[in-house]
Amino acid sequence: GQSLEQPSEVTAVEGAIVQINCTYQTSGFYGLSWYQQHDGGAPTFLSYNALDGLEETGRFSSFLSRSDSYGYLLLQELQMKDSASYFCAVRHRDDKIIFGKGTRLHILP
Amino acid sequence: KAGVTQTPRYLIKTRGQQVTLSCSPISGHRSVSWYQQTPGQGLQFLFEYFSETQRNKGNFPGRFSGRQFSNSRSEMNVSTLELGDSALYLCASSGTENTEAFFGQGTRLTVV
Question: CA nearest A87 in B: which residue?
C-alpha cells in the first residue's frame, strides 16, 4: 500500500527550530513535497525534494532519504505565523499526489 | 494569473440529496485533482483528471464521481449524500512538471 506517517502535533517556542518528520511506505515515486495549511485556508506549497539531500528555502528546509524512506521539514527562527498544519506528500509515477494526515504545529511565545 | 477557483464556497444539503462542486484550474494546467479533508484524516485523494480523462482514482465509493471538460474545468458529484460526507472538498491543479499542486479555497459541504 501507500502511506505516509507524520506526528499529529508538535509544539515549539517562538524563535526556536523545529523538525517535522515524515516516513513513508510506498515505492516508485518521483519526490516528496511539503505543504502548509493555516486554519480556514488552502494548502500552499512549501518545497519539493526530487533527490536525496537537503533543499533550503529561506527559513524552511526539507530533506529526503530514499534509502531510509524518510524525510523532514525543518523550520528555523520560528514565528507565530508559522502556527499551521504541515503535510508531507508524495508524487507517484502515475502522477497521483498522496498526502499524509498532517502535523499541527503549535508555537508558544 | 488567476488561481484555482472553487464554487460554491459553502453548501448545506440533506441526506439522500446529490451535489455538484466545480473547480476552475489555473490557466494552462491540465491536471485537476480532488481531495476530501476531514479533521484528523488529512487530505484523502478522490480522483485526478488530465485532459478530460480520469487518470487516477482513490478509495471512495461509486457515489463520488467527477469529470473534466475541454477547458480543463472539473466538476465532482456526490450522489445519495450521507452525514459522513460532510467535509472540506479541495481541488488542486498542476502544470506539466506536476511537482507543485495549487489548491483552491475549497467547498465546505455540510450534510444534515
Answer: B42
Over the stretch B51-106, which tens digit does the pLDDT of each residue have? Answer: 999 999 999 999 999 999 999 999 999 999 999 999 999 999 998 777 789 999 99
Q: Does A71 touch chain B (CB under 8 A)?
A: no
CA atoms within 13 A on the CB side of B64: 18
Provide the grid cell at A44: 500552499
Residues in chain B: 112
Which of B31, B42, B94 is nearest residue A101 as measured by Cβ atoms?
B42
pLDDT by residue for chain A (109 residues), tens only, comes to: 568 999 999 999 999 999 999 999 877 778 899 999 999 899 999 999 999 999 998 999 999 999 898 999 999 999 999 999 999 999 877 778 889 999 999 999 9
Q: Is A96–B40 a contact, with Cβ atoms under 8 angstroms apart? A: no
Q: How many CA atoms lie within 13 A of A4 on its CB side?
A: 32
Asked if A14 reaches chain B (Cβ–Cβ under 8 Å), the answer is: no
What is the predicted pLDDT for the residue at B54?
94
Of B43, B50, B98, the CB nearest to A99: B43
CA neighbor of B42 nearest in space, from A62, A90, A66, A81: A90
Give the integer Cα–Cα distance in Å for B72 and A76.
Answer: 39
